[in-house]
TrEMBL record, chain A:
Name the record gives this protein: Polar amino acid transport system permease protein
Listed PANTHER family: ARGININE ABC TRANSPORTER PERMEASE PROTEIN ARTQ, CATIONIC AMINO ACID TRANSPORTER, MEMBRANE COMPONENT
Record-annotated ABC transmembrane type-1 domain positions: 22-221
Lineage: Bacteria, Pseudomonadati, Pseudomonadota, Alphaproteobacteria, Hyphomicrobiales
Cellular compartment(s): Cell inner membrane; Cell membrane
Automatic annotation (TrEMBL), chain B:
Top-rank lineage group of the source organism: Bacteria
This protein's GO CC annotations: ATP-binding cassette (ABC) transporter complex
Family classification: Belongs to the binding-protein-dependent transport system permease family. HisMQ subfamily.
Domain ABC transmembrane type-1 span(s) in chain numbering: 75-276
BP-aspect Gene Ontology terms: amino acid transport
NCBIfam families in UniProt: HEQRo_perm_3TM
InterPro entries, A to Z: AA_ABC_transptr_permease_3TM (IPR010065), ArtM/GltK/GlnP/TcyL/YhdX-like (IPR043429), MetI-like (IPR000515), MetI-like_sf (IPR035906)
Protein name in UniProt: Polar amino acid transport system permease protein
Keywords per UniProt: Cell inner membrane, Cell membrane, Membrane, Transmembrane, Transmembrane helix, Transport
Cell inner membrane is among the record's keywords: yes
Amino acid sequence: MEFLDLLSFGGGGWGDDLAAGLAVTVALALTTLPIGLVLGFLLALAKDSDDPGLIRAATIFTTIFRGLPELLTLFIIYYGGQIALQKLFRLLFDTYVEFSSFTAGVIALSLVFASFASEVFLSAFRGIQKGQYEGAYALGLRPTTTMRLVILPQLIRLALPGLSNLWLILLKDTSLVSVIALNDLLRNTNVAVGVTKQPFFFYFVACMIYLVLSIISSFGINGIDRWSRRGEATK
Amino acid sequence: MTMREMSANQAANQAYVSDRLLPAEPPPASVRHWSKARIAGIVLMTLWAAIAIALVVFFISAWNPALLTRYGPKLLDGLLVTIELVVLSVAIGAVLAGIVAAGRLSKNRWTRGLAFAFVYFFRGTPLLAQTFLVYYGAGQFREVFEAAGLWWFFRDAFNCAALTFTLNTAAYQAEIYAGAIRGISVGQWEGARALGLSPVVIFIKVVAPQALITALRPLGNEIIFMIKGSAIASVITVYDLLGETRLAFSRSFDFQVYLWAAGLYLVVVEALRRLWDAAERRLTRHLKPAQDSSGQQVVAEQLGA
């Protein structure tokens, strides 16, 4: 009973704080996802091109952000961005600006997500036969139309397992922003622990909330998977 | 008409045709067009070059031998702690993963469920939250651990981090091993059994060697994930590479220490990745047809010779 009180919404309970943290965590992940997907797709296009310079530029990017620990990337973006932004603003406007930890989190997580997503997209591109491009060309489709109507629908199907893995990793990686003082789920849990001195209980609850998030995600992913296969013959 | 006359006739016909054809022109020199891809490539490589130059300028302008002599060795000490942490957890985790994988593949429903719950929990929750759960959670049960004579272990942040990472990597490795063993076709088991081998021998001599080859690549990725993930230990006051870096930054307020750490991590991860690739190529060399440097199969050539 005592533990239920700790989780109640209201003055004595921490339920509302955890819920607020959860909202920040979900917002962070959902903001990062589209940016990371688009950037990852562009990187895959670059790696799949036939220009050596473009391939090298994309490879440098992914090597860096796949090799660095996510936490270090976050620190470099947060502190480095802070310093760079302040120097810039002092130079231009003579004012002080704050580089928010949410922005730093979105940038750092997007860079990491994009590097891994580019690999997923690239292997999906390799899984599409040349005949698909040739067929579309024979039909007189323009390159952008070919990409939109012929390649992308198949690409989604091939890339979905890899991308859903990356989404689950992203959900977990959002917890790292608690270290740069963003009030996400884990950070609010830390606060609750500091006040109530019940670390085991609260961290366990936080872990369970992350688990529930990934379970909900699996349902969503299954739905997208079914949607992407709607054109296939039913067994 | 004899054969000889026929071929002479053919040669004459060919000469007649080639005399009346235009002489073959040399193939046109390949032209590199100013395609969008090429322009984008040049722009982006210029950008990287600019970043590299900016970094060099930054390091020269911020050159501080005192900082390097003071914190350089500490960062290297931190790197050793990181390596120690990763080697310990990956090695002990591999043993534990073997047990969990056996549970995942067990015929007993309860064993399977237990192993699944273990794997699901450690793969579905953030490593940072798990580390907090073990480190701060253990503090809550101090009396229990003192009574059991285990408090010396949980008192130390390094031990707690190593324990968490071991459990975490055990869950991931268990899935890798279980998946690899499942991937071995039933025929392998049946064939070995038909030869009268005992289950243990079948596993060691037939299944494990094939499964380990499938597991090689994901295992390499998992080790790299552990190296990167071990940076999380710095949050619970373990002075690994990132921990030493954060300490150095909080004392010197010099941003370049983060860039040093980034360089060290990149070197370690890239070196391991390349070593692992080379090892994998060597270990799987019997599975691929022989190829020469241009990627052409040399098998046909050898057959013709």
